[in-house]
Amino acid sequence: MKIEIYATEYRTEFSADIFLLLLEKLSPALQAKVRKYKRWQDAYGCLFGKLLLIRALRDKGFHGDLNELQYTEYGRPYLRDAPDFNISHSGNLVVCILGGEGPVGIDIEEIRELSISEFKDQFTAIEWQIIQTAKEPLLAFYHYWTAKESVLKANGKGLSISPATVHIETSQEAVLGQFRWKILTIDTFENYACHIAYEGPEVSWVVKRCLPNEWTGFGPLQS
After folding, report:
1. Which residue among 73, 102, 103, 143 has the highest number of C-beta atoms inside a 10 angstrom radius?
2. Phi-psi map region of 39: left, alpha, beta (phi>0 left; psi -120 to 50 alpha)
3. Looking at the domain assignment, is residue 221 inside a domain?
4. Please, are residues 10 and 212 in contact by the beta-carbon 8 Å criterion?
5. Tens of pLDDT along 40-51?
6. Confidence of residue 218 (pLDDT cuts 50, 70, 90)
7. The model scores a pTM over 0.90
């Protein structure tokens, strides 16, 4: 099985007309959610995440009607008769994946300077030692962080669980409580760290890039 990662990147703000054209491809409820963001980068992350989801669903033969979007008690969105999905955005990049036989999670983080010592409590002693002794500790930090976050997002409880509860046992496996998750390092996005977590048989991955200026040519993406 191959997991397809839908991705789009935006570096500049669109005109108001183009933004409205894109926004109208979503349901009124999702439009309102996008408009709540104060920073245009965050609004675009929300907007393009949903557009990528519609594109992915359509490519897999589902109608992609996000009017049917529902939420778990932990606020995780889902569609009843469609594969599990997950969306992540950071910086100017948005990614979206669909699951196969079980839940999936994806996390992407723009690699920026920060004081990693403030996050020491979120790692096991072994994980922290590996980060501290790495040739580039900042990159190692983001590697472990996105791996942990992808598992939390696949698990579905998100921010209600601390990253410290996720133990990265190998480069391809993580443990959360009594459950083991497979993880994949996605190393194709320059200056970003990214991981996928999933259940089921081994998978490979491929990235489908959607250029920002393509979106206005898709026509109505919503049923």
Report:
1. 143
2. beta
3. no
4. yes
5. 999 999 999 999
6. very low
7. yes
